[in-house]
Design goal:
Shape: globular
CATH class: Alpha Beta
Strand content: 15-25%
Order of helices and strands: EHEHEHEH
């Protein structure tokens, strides 16, 4: 199964979802991208995922344009902005979905207060993408 997860900057939510799905099933082809990709993965996202044993420190933001001609089983947007401006794919996309989350990069306060927001969003991502994974696998079984 080949999955593309899209958000705006490709620094937090989509990176966490990519890392989680890859850790859940090494057989999945999982990619993430942004409609306006930034320079690096957010260090708070890296730290939040490391707390649960998922290393996303070597991942890097990518512009969604590089995937437009690829075929995907699922293209999933994780933020409303990306959903609104998600480009048209010339490759075959079997399913498009939206699973939205708040942007943890908007968090303010002390480092611990910011980390609490990242942990909350991380846990929501894990919950929703685990449910997604289970439902997709149950549909694909004979």
């Amino acid at each position: 199964m080949k999955i593309l997860i899209i958000c705006t900057g490709n620094t937090c939510r989509s990176q966490m979802a990519e890392g989680f799905l890859r850790s859940l099933d090494r057989g999945l082809e999982v990619f993430s991208a942004g409609t306006r990709a930034e320079q690096k993965v957010n260090p708070y996202a890296v730290k939040a995922m490391a707390e649960i044993g998922v290393d996303i420190s070597t991942q890097h933001p990518k512009q969604v344009d590089i995937f437009l001609t690829d075929n995907f089983d699922y293209v999933i947007t994780v933020c409303n902005k990306a959903k609104e401006i998600c480009p048209a794919f010339t490759g075959r996309v079997k399913h498009r979905m939206h699973i939205g989350f708040e942007d943890p990069a908007d968090a303010q306060g002390t480092e611990e207060e910011i980390m609490e927001v990242y942990r909350k969003v991380r846990d929501q991502i894990i919950e929703h993408f685990h449910s997604f994974y289970l439902s997709v696998n149950s549909m694909n079984k004979p």
